[in-house]
């Protein structure tokens, strides 16, 4: 039964959190059954579907796919997860967040379908994904860009056949569900690919299992460093070379740095080219100069906010800070969940951190500031403060920052969301 107050989005979200016994339950049988009842599988939700999987870089790739497509006059829908501040962030229709009414109509359609006959249990993410697909289908955009939530093969997003499959990076994360074997993780990510549809591989260091999966399916491989690539022409500008859907060589020059990983920017351009969009230099320049993605190398004064929560992402952050030297101290405010590789993240960031602030997060998967501090100190880091929350750590730091100091706040979406909310309150 729907929530008692079905006219409020927060009531729907609270209801969806309660109707399935576990938060993550990989598998497509339940999702596919409800999708069939809803009619989602019978009609394509968009003219073209681009599905993005990977450990890191999915969010930035989706953001650039959306921005560049829209700059070419292409209508879009983009589905991502998780959100930072509002659930509405997860679904964007033609560049705008879906309103409450659109989301609730989708939830109503999902609830009606899952109870139509033998009841089907759905997780929060599965219900949200089906509601988004239903809403996208009502809009019927030219391109739907779908970000895989976890893994690939068994993720709810994979209920829809993709026209262009994108794999960004492969690293260890979500070990409880995906394991620690990179080849095995690669096989799971490759599960989003489809026979005869381009497989855009957006990392130079993917496990062999990803390409092997594409070849076994008969999905044409379009790989970074082979079919497409990028290089810097001058500081702040770069060039891209790739292939059109017909195999023609393409080139774009004098592109602005979007402030996001250029591997992901190049991958987004190639995915759109593989989808048959004729890339135009001026439109690409405009889109890349304006693209924004909260919580990914997002600078608010001396504060850099990034949702990176695994060693691969932390190594990227450390590299970015290294090439952006500071005359003052670099502080790292770290808050992480208990099922993440905190030791690996700390090791990656230790080379750029002059001081640490460890903070606790709430929830059943939370990790305490004391646990983080012990791990930081075991690696020789100096922990200046242990905060009961990200906000507490931020307040402590704000009172002590020197004029040339900077802060990297990272480790979890929860950490960044808390700091963003705190910063917004300061600026209000």
TrEMBL record:
GO terms for molecular function: ATP binding; dihydrofolate synthase activity; metal ion binding; tetrahydrofolylpolyglutamate synthase activity. SUPFAM superfamilies: MurD-like peptide ligases, catalytic domain, MurD-like peptide ligases, peptide-binding domain. Residues 295-413 form the Mur ligase C-terminal domain. InterPro entries: Folylpolyglutamate_synth, Mur-like_cat_sf, Mur_ligase_C, Mur_ligase_C_dom_sf, Mur_ligase_cen. Gene3D superfamilies: Mur ligase, C-terminal domain, Mur-like, catalytic domain. Residues 52-194 form the Mur ligase central domain. Belongs to the folylpolyglutamate synthase family. This is Dihydrofolate synthase/folylpolyglutamate synthase.
